[in-house]
Amino acid sequence: MAKDALMDFDEALERYEPVLGFEVHVELNTETKMFSAAANPANERNHGASPNTLVAPVDMGLPGSLPVVNETAVRYSISLGLALGCEIAPSSRFARKNYFYPDLGKNYQISQYDEPIAFEGQVEVELEDGTRFEVPIERAHMEEDAGKLTHMGGATGRIQGAEYSLVDYNRAGVPLVEIVTKPIFGAEHRAPELAAAYVRAIRDIVIGLGISEARMERGNLRCDANVSLRPRALPGEPAAPLGTRTETKNVNSMRSVERAVRYEIQRQAAILAAGGSITQETRHWHEDTGRTSPGRPKSDADDYRYFPEPDLLPVAPPVELIESLRAALPEPPAVRRRRLKESWGFADIDFQGVVNAGLLNEVEATVAAGAAPAAARKWWMSEISRIANAEGVDAASLVSPASVAALQQLVDAGTLTDKLARQVLEGVIAGEGTPQEVVDARGLAVVSDDGALIAAIDEALAAQPDVLAKIRDGKVQAAGAVIGAVMKAMRGQADAARVRELVLERAAQ
């Protein structure tokens, strides 16, 4: 495939104004699917479960099967709409979206079209330097997910060149909320950064609500990024009409969302500058090459032949339910981050590092369990993250915040040095018990008996008889050789600062 011509990003922004839009799909953690009683285990629907085992007749599109709306999914959708600052519709209804879906047995999707459950909201997005940006929300509507196709026989795993495809209906019918923004103006050079920050804000909201795992790598959260360009208007002239948009589908990481938006700006700018026109189409993002490729011509709403779903009644939530869900909303993520940053006293770069690593919840829980903020950040961002990266797992899956706080308390009490604490952490992660149990089982506590330390010091001095003289002559750094020898003799279980004090006391005698 020929490479696209790209315009320099800064030049593209000088000549054209970028207009963004996002469609974010959130899988809901309900026990059953959107319209059937089939199980919906969050960790198995995309990974682990045998194909076509999490299904019911409705999911397979079998004749005579009828959908039933999942009440919990409706509650979750209302909560999400409220958290997005949306109005909740007193009555909304489902529609049939007609399209060739080889992985939906009915060959149509039950979604919401002109009567969504939530509409007219806005989300505050905070960029890395603290700049705040309001993203307008057009709607948030309920729908069902499609299944999964596995293309067999080809070299790339894609449909092109495949001999046949296998269909897995496990994901068909999983409850989704699709969040659709209005056109976003004014992002300018920060458009790619805003794209990633917006998706991160949605992820934080749904995790805070407890309605989704929101893990992009597992497909719990998927983003379609819309990009269009329009020529810059001269001073005093009206703004040009909106340009033709492309929709880059199912981008599966924050970094990829940012890169895809940047790429599309550069690609479209090069086409327009050469006198070409943009095709309204879906695009596929390729992580390995860092570029997009054409998908299919993008349909408009009329092409889907929407009509009201005849098998489902309108959804009319009581006002009392809406208000009870509003009262139960957690603190907005942006407000929470500002509160924690101020409370912890972190520098901007340190706090943003925690946020970018996705470890804000873990650090907060560790602080709540009794650790100092700086210590909590140190453990999660250094040693625990190092082990997680080496093992290819999430840091949060290795150890609980309570265990990290207990470990730090042993350090604060002088029971452990930082070096010993790292060994204890490895034991905790290995399943050997609590930090205290690992200390006891491995015999890792710091030796606090001065008698034992003095004996080790005397032995080290006997092996290096000139050290005392050097220290007494003012060469205090010579004590390092004795301290090293003592630490080795004590298997690292001595407090180096205390050993230094005792060595200097001996020199002063």
TrEMBL record:
Keyword Magnesium: no
The EC number(s) this enzyme carries: 6.3.5.-
Catalytically driven reaction(s): L-glutamyl-tRNA(Gln) + L-glutamine + ATP + H2O = L-glutaminyl-tRNA(Gln) + L-glutamate + ADP + phosphate + H(+); L-aspartyl-tRNA(Asn) + L-glutamine + ATP + H2O = L-asparaginyl-tRNA(Asn) + L-glutamate + ADP + phosphate + 2 H(+)
Sequence segments annotated as region (Disordered): 232-253, 280-301
Residue span(s) of domain Asn/Gln amidotransferase: 361-507
Biased composition (Basic and acidic residues): 281-290
Superkingdom assignment: Bacteria
A Pfam family per the record: GatB_Yqey
Alphabetical list of SMART domains matching this protein: GatB_Yqey (SM00845)
Keywords (A to Z) from UniProt: ATP-binding, Ligase, Nucleotide-binding, Protein biosynthesis, Transferase
Gene Ontology MF annotations: asparaginyl-tRNA synthase (glutamine-hydrolyzing) activity; ATP binding; glutaminyl-tRNA synthase (glutamine-hydrolyzing) activity; transferase activity
GO biological process: glutaminyl-tRNAGln biosynthesis via transamidation; translation
Function: Allows the formation of correctly charged Asn-tRNA(Asn) or Gln-tRNA(Gln) through the transamidation of misacylated Asp-tRNA(Asn) or Glu-tRNA(Gln) in organisms which lack either or both of asparaginyl-tRNA or glutaminyl-tRNA synthetases. The reaction takes place in the presence of glutamine and ATP through an activated phospho-Asp-tRNA(Asn) or phospho-Glu-tRNA(Gln).
Subunit annotation: Heterotrimer of A, B and C subunits.
Family as reported in the entry's similarity comment: Belongs to the GatB/GatE family. GatB subfamily.
Name assigned to this protein: Aspartyl/glutamyl-tRNA(Asn/Gln) amidotransferase subunit B
Species whose genome carries this gene: Microbacterium lacticum
Gene behind the chain: gatB
